[in-house]
User: Fold this.
Amino acid sequence: MTSQSTAKTTAKTPTPDRIRRAPKVLLHDHLDGGLRPGTVVELARATGYQGLPETDADRLGVWFRQAADSGSLERYLETFSHTVGVMQTRDALVRVAAECAEDLAEDGVVYAEVRYAPEQHLEGGLSLEEVVEAVDEGFREGERRARDNGHRIRVGALLTAMRHAARSLEIAELANRYRDLGGGGVVGFDIAGAEAGYPPTRHLDAFEYLKRENNHFTIHAGEAFGLPSIWQALQWCGADRLGHGVRIIDDIQVHEDGTVKLGRLASYVRDKRIPLELCPSSNLQTGAADSYAEHPIGLLRRLHFRATVNTDNRLMSHTSMSREFEHLVDAFGYTLDDMQWFSVNAMKSAFIPFDERLAMINDVIKPGYAELKSEWLFQ
Ligand SMILES: [Zn+2]
Assistant:
């Protein structure tokens, strides 16, 4: 009896090793937020970039984390000026993209949509097209290297436009043009940057264009800023997914007796199965939650929102998909079944064609978890 129940608990317990080996799906990850510290140092040297606060890789890694943790928006933004600063040549973009795919694959990610803003990589004289082609080449190279190391991963790109700039239609057109690249290609579009003062409706022409082209997009909304931003992203702009969307919690009342009441917007998000690209560690750094245990993902998962787990900026948040899940397992006691639920949610919400998503779920994700969950039988 006891041995049986022990077997049952250990069967689904996500140890760090199992978490890493479990097939994971990542929808919200910034290319300029995931560089290896050593690569930043080497690229700075190779491209003549001045102004890194540290030239030792380990110390630079710590500096990135501390700046992101500081609570100062200025210091947080400074971290990106350095990563973007060293990503201004073709070779640098290829390398960063290849290492991104390699690192994700090593961490057990089987499908990823990685985003970047082409307009931020033009200082070295590249055109928007050259930026997209370099990153694409890097992703394909990273996929190949991963395969050589026994890992399988597919990486698609999301092209981001900056909300404070005025190039969103141009970037949307670029995303549409590069939609049919081989491999993962460019699978969609995104808007990022400071929410306050820059509502997504400023970029309506870009969203309307993409809708006319039957293309997909997500919008950073409801991260620090509240419900109006989420409402605009969905009801004015027609976003397929919400980047973060964590403030949807403001439209959910939890009563003392444990009953829950959803407002109209929260109901809409749940009923329409709008994917929430939640990024727990990043949210803690920006103050959207005080601890993992208090992060709204616990409630949103219980209420069966289409919640997904994401990294946002692996370098600045010193994280990975496995680390995010380790934190959630600690905070909420999640099992491999919960991890599978998040991973299937994310795969359902990806921007690649339905038949490919279905095959990923049925032929890669579910068998992967079944394998992990059955290990106890053979111990
Ligand atoms: Zn983001």
Summary: The first strand starts at residue 24 and ends at 30. Residues 221 and 230 are 5 Å apart (CA to CA).
